[in-house]
Structures are given as C-alpha cells and as structure tokens.
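Changelog entry: the RAB4B protein record was regenerated in this release. Current contents:
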Amino acid sequence: RSVTRSYYRGAAGALLVYDITSRETYNALTDWLTDARTLASPNIVIILCGNKKDLDAEREVTFLEASRFAQENELMFLETSALTGENVEEAFLKCARTILNKIESGTERGGDPGEGGGGI
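Regenerated structure tokens:
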C-alpha cells in the first residue's frame, strides 16, 4: 500500500474502484479515499466506480448503498464492467472533463513547469 501512495502525488483525478461482488473492497473505500484526499492535489476529482456490474446476481454492495457513500463524500459515482466495457470510457471522460472544467474556472490550477506529477 505504501507503494501506491506515491502515485497520488500531484494527481488531479482518481478513479476509486471497488468490486460490487466483494464487501471487503467496498469496506476499504474510506481508507483509499483518505489517502487520495491527503496525498493528491487539494481539489482532486474522484470518481467512485463499482466494478463488475455484469455480475449483478453476485452483488454484495447495493447501488443505493454505494450511491449514498458517494453523495456523503461528494464523489461522482458510476457502476462499470471491465468485462463488457460498460461505463469504463465514461468514467475516464467524466473525470477528465471535470478536471478541465475546474482548470478553466480557476478552481484547479494546471501543473507548474517545474512540478512533478499531475497525472490522472
């Protein structure tokens, strides 16, 4: 986990992904969210993604439960399927568009020439 923390430095956006068929991955979201908000840029855009939407019959985390978590933590939320590709591109595009809107409105500054990071 300490290795992944270095990926947050300078990030303007993050996809926080959990497995809808695994309560354990959902329960870990609070820790991952804390890391993202602590270690990345102050105005980081975070999209919560419930993955494996194609396995609805095996679901352990309801859409409503995850939607509430997203709302309480001011996150955008989508359910995705890496297998079918459903909403995967949309998640990245939504993140990128939101970052661009923040930059254009002045609520997020672009990377300074000497600054590292700045990835999504």
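Residues 111-120 have pLDDT under 50 and may be disordered.
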